[in-house]
């Protein structure tokens, strides 16, 4: 039964980038199975993924409810990483709804947990988000301290977080009126964008044919799953799904949170 729940979760992972409704369907099925099996970690991950998809659909009320459910489960499991991830997503929802004070409170809570448990990349990510808030509030010295710390952590380690950091430096220098420095950071951002675009285009071209084959086999698997959820076919097909969805068997969260 646990294998079935994980297979359904993997199907949600497969669809999440190009079919939100289909991904939600499978995540909700996985959530239902997780509850039956008392698989609290799977439940927490499903809540998180469902929340992110509702956020994409701009249904912020449902997104918030699912993030809160994920947070409760992660706290129950004493999963510090999951707790921080859930708090970040809640904070970003507050930012999106212009509830800056609530956003700061939630992100600062996540910041404290990440620092205490040495979750350095999540700590740096939160630095970037808080710096963005401080820049808007004209608290520029506080923003610079956070960005300097973030840069020291992520440079040559995480390209996405480094990009976010450089982009915030651009906004910071612009807010301080140092337009020469701001222009330098903007040029750096554009350079990173150009490299990323070229690499992404090559990757998309190389994966298109394989993904088409995967979709054909995926439809065959879906039919098998709906005909007999407790059939041995599910366990065999789940291996194919995991391979074609480019995901590991372990629980996956949506890899990229929202940027400010």
Fill in the keyword field for this structure.
single chain; 260 residues; mainly alpha; elongated
Question: Count the helices. How many?
Answer: 11
What is the global morphology?
Answer: elongated
Number of strands: 0
The description of the largest β-sheet is: none
Describe the 3D structure.
By secondary structure, this protein is mainly α. It has helices at 2-15, 20-37, 40-56, 60-77, 80-96, 100-116, 120-136, 140-154, 159-176, 179-227, 232-244. Helix 2 packs antiparallel against helix 3 and helix 10 packs antiparallel against helix 11 (232-244). Residues 229-256 have low confidence and may be disordered.
Summarize the SSE layout with pairings.
Elements: H1 2-15, H2 20-37, H3 40-56, H4 60-77, H5 80-96, H6 100-116, H7 120-136, H8 140-154, H9 159-176, H10 179-227, H11 232-244
Helix pairs in contact: 1-2, 1-11, 2-3, 3-4, 3-5, 4-5, 5-6, 6-7, 7-8, 7-9, 8-9, 9-10, 10-11
Summarize the model shown.
The chain has 260 residues and is mostly helical.
């Amino acid at each position: 039964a646990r294998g079935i729940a994980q297979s359904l979760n993997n199907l949600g992972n497969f669809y999440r980038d190009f079919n939100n409704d289909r991904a939600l369907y499978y995540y909700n099925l996985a959530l239902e199975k997780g509850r039956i099996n008392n698989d609290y970690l799977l439940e927490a991950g499903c809540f998180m993924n469902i929340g992110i998809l509702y956020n994409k659909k701009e249904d912020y009320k449902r997104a918030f409810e699912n993030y809160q459910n994920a947070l409760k489960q992660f706290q129950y499991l004493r999963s510090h990483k999951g707790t921080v991830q859930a708090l970040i997503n809640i904070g970003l929802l507050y930012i999106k709804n212009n509830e800056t004070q609530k956003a700061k409170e939630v992100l600062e809570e996540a910041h404290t947990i990440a620092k205490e448990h040495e979750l350095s990349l999540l700590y740096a990510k939160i630095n970037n988000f808080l710096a963005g808030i401080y820049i808007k509030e004209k608290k520029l010295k506080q923003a610079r301290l956070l960005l300097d710390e973030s840069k020291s952590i992520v440079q040559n380690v995480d390209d996405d977080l480094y990009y976010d950091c450089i982009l915030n430096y651009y906004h910071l220098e612009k807010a301080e009126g140092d337009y020469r420095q701001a222009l330098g950071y903007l040029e750096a951002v554009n350079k990173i964008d150009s490299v990323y675009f070229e690499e992404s285009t090559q990757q998309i071209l190389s994966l298109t044919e394989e993904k088409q084959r995967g979709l054909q086999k995926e439809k065959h698997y879906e039919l098998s799953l709906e005909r007999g959820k407790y059939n041995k076919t599910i366990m065999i097909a789940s291996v194919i799904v995991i391979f074609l969805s480019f995901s590991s068997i372990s629980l996956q969260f949506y890899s990229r949170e929202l940027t400010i």
